[in-house]
Specification:
ABC transporter transmembrane region fold, Rossmann fold, six-stranded mixed β-sheet, 10 strands, elongated, binds adenosine-5'-triphosphate
């Protein structure tokens, strides 16, 4: 990404930045494809030589020389083919990595509201699949350009040279095959898109069943959910079958159409050999011409396949392209700075008119941890979410003196890190879930959330796949993994909504101590129901009916009986009574 001209939302840029790899592909591809002509030519020569040996005009040594040259030529062709394939794969891997880096960066900076609009957590899984499809299309495009374009031109030249009239006659068939493939592209695209949608729906349904299994069991809704799931499954199967039929059935048909010219070659070719056709041929010329045409037809059917792959990739690209535009909002951009927070007169109502926060004011400095607590439904989570600016608020939230609502979304996302109740993990490895395309040491963040030991004990360590939404992890593990991701993409202001609810006290304390120690530039707002760490908070916000009392733990213990009671209940009552 050092290249200034690189534009993440332009496919051409990905080709341009890989020019060195593509140069090797071009050279080896040219050698391979032009070398392919040697096959039919040698086959023709060997057939002719055999006929001559039988007639006594050639010798065994002539055949030996031909066979040896044939083997050498084929060896060169195959080595070039190997080199070409190796570099095409490298090109695909590089592009895949680059696209995913940008995509992850963009997803990290996307607002929760827009993620939710696009279908919650599975937007990530779908986008990752789309990147894979795109890169596969680009890889095929790169390979087929040579395997098809160059080879087709070489074969066509050879056919024209042997008998231009017969060549033109036969070569009508491949373009017919192309045209049909082009006409079929809509169907391929449509069925492919429907398959993706169903695949996303099935992932969401699977996630829902896994997450809420016990709830459905307790309320006797298992049967109903099972039926809904079966329906999802059969819709998915149908769409998969449709998409695969169009993908798999069409190429052989294109191939048969392309091969139509063989009939002309058999008829007019034998005339050429008998001396009453358009050209005068021997057996070698007939064999070479036929072999050349067969190879040309096979290649042209690959071109048809190329259309399908490229169209499929186009659909995927259209979907992920908007995400690739948000390069400016990549994590780390604002992560190094610190910020002073000043909230004054903050009042907030949800769109349904319910006022949840009233006239809240407080400040927070870098390195300070502010504990926020209060009774159930008093507005703690709402206070955390207000900073995401999903809905407008009244009053002021100033970051280093600048009003949050007036910042550009990308700038805002670069200033605020948020971890909500849902860990929002996506179906990839532990490492990718933390780094999301950034290059950092994921191990360090696992240590900070006390998850390193558990991950080390997993069979595949950091490469363990977590499943959609993190279903393969325990609640506490998923929570800590999400926290590791939030810490890895550090922002000057960090809002953590009940990040320790599924952890034991010892782990909670350890993580808290590390947060205090390792984040001197970050202002942390920690929302929690559990208060035993609150005596160590730099300040505490006690919320009641949307209003906030801001002070330190000791003062609140003296002044707010509800807070003291709340704290005492969690600490065996001793301090409250004292
Ligand atoms: N999206 C929403 N639209 C409308 N009202 C909402 C929305 N989210 C929350 N509320 C309401 O706002 C009030 C405060 O909810 P909030 O989740 O902020 O409370 P909380 O203190 O975090 O609760 P808890 O202790 O249960 O986590 C509740 O009455 C809730 O019904």
């Amino acid at each position: 990404m050092k290249n200034k001209k690189f534009q993440a939302d332009r496919v051409r840029s990905y080709f341009r930045i890989e020019w060195k790899v593509l140069l090797v592909v071009t050279i080896s591809g040219l050698i391979y494809n032009l070398g392919l002509l040697a096959g039919p030519w040698f086959e023709g020569q060997m057939t002719g030589c055999l006929v001559n040996i039988l007639q006594g005009s050639d010798h065994f040594t002539d055949m030996l020389i031909l066979v040896t040259s044939y083997v050498v030529a084929i060896a060169v062709v195959q080595i070039s083919r190997y080199v070409k394939r190796f570099y095409v794969r490298r090109f695909a891997n590089n592009v895949n990595r680059r696209m995913k880096e940008i995509l992850y960066g963009s997803l990290v900076s996307k607002s929760r509201a827009s993620l939710r609009k696009e279908g919650e957590g599975d937007v990530m899984t779908k986008a990752i699949l789309d990147v894979d499809d795109c890169v596969e299309g680009m890889r095929k495009f790169t390979t087929e350009i040579f395997d098809t374009g160059v080879a087709l031109a070489a074969y066509a030249g050879m056919l024209l040279w042997y008998d231009w009239r017969l060549a033109l006659l036969c070569m009508i068939f491949p373009p017919v095959s192309y045209t049909i493939a082009e006409k079929m592209k809509r169907v391929v695209q449509k069925t492919g898109a429907a398959y993706k949608v169903q695949s996303g729906a099935l992932s969401a349904a699977t996630l829902d069943r896994g997450k809420n299994a016990s709830t459905y069991r307790v309320f006797g809704r298992e049967q109903e959910r099972q039926e809904a799931y079966e329906k999802n499954l059969s819709d998915y199967e149908q769409s998969a079958v449709k998409a695969n039929i169009w993908n798999a059935v069409m190429p052989p048909i294109y191939r048969i159409i392309s091969m139509g010219g063989v009939l002309f070659i058999l008829y007019f070719g034998q005339k050429n050999v008998l001396g009453n056709g358009w050209s005068s041929w021997d057996i070698a010329a007939f064999t070479t011409f036929l072999a050349c045409f067969v190879k040309l037809s096979v290649k042209s059917s690959r071109a048809a396949k190329l259309f399908n792959a490229v169209h499929k990739a186009e659909v995927s690209w259209k979907r992920i392209c908007p995400l690739m535009k948000q390069k400016d909002a990549q994590p780390g951009a604002a992560g190094a700075e610190s910020c002073e927070l000043e909230v004054s007169g903050l009042t907030f109502s949800y769109p349904d008119g319910k006022t949840v926060l009233r006239d809240i004011s407080f400040t927070a400095k870098p390195g300070q941890i502010t504990g926020i607590t209060g009774a159930v439904a008093c507005g703690k989570s709402t206070l955390g979410k207000v900073f995401l600016c999903e809905y407008p608020y009244e009053g002021k939230i100033l970051l280093n003196g600048e009003e949050l609502q007036e910042k550009q979304p990308s700038e805002r996302n670069g200033s605020i890190g948020y971890l909500g109740h849902d860990p929002e993990l996506f179906n990839d490895t532990i490492e990718h879930n933390i780094l999301m395309g950034d290059s950092a040491n994921a191990e360090q963040y696992l240590q900070e959330v006390c998850l390193d030991q558990e991950v080390a004990e997993m069979e595949q360590g950091m490469q363990t796949l977590v499943g959609n939404g993190g279903v393969r992890l325990s609640g506490g593990q998923a929570q800590r993994l999400a926290l590791a991701r939030t810490l890895c993409h550090r922002r000057p202001l960090l809002i953590l909504d009940d990040p320790f609810s599924a952890l034991d006290q010892k782990t909670e304390r350890e993580i808290f101590d590390k947060l205090k120690q390792n984040y001197p530039d970050t202002a942390i707002l920690l929302i929690s129901h559990r208060l035993y760490l609150f005596p160590e908070m730099d300040q505490v916000i006690w919320m009641e009916d949307g209003q906030a009392t801001v002070s330190d733990h000791e003062t609140l213990m003296r002044q707010i009986p509800e807070y003291a009671k709340f704290f005492a209940e969690q600490n065996g009552g001793s301090e409250y009574e004292a």
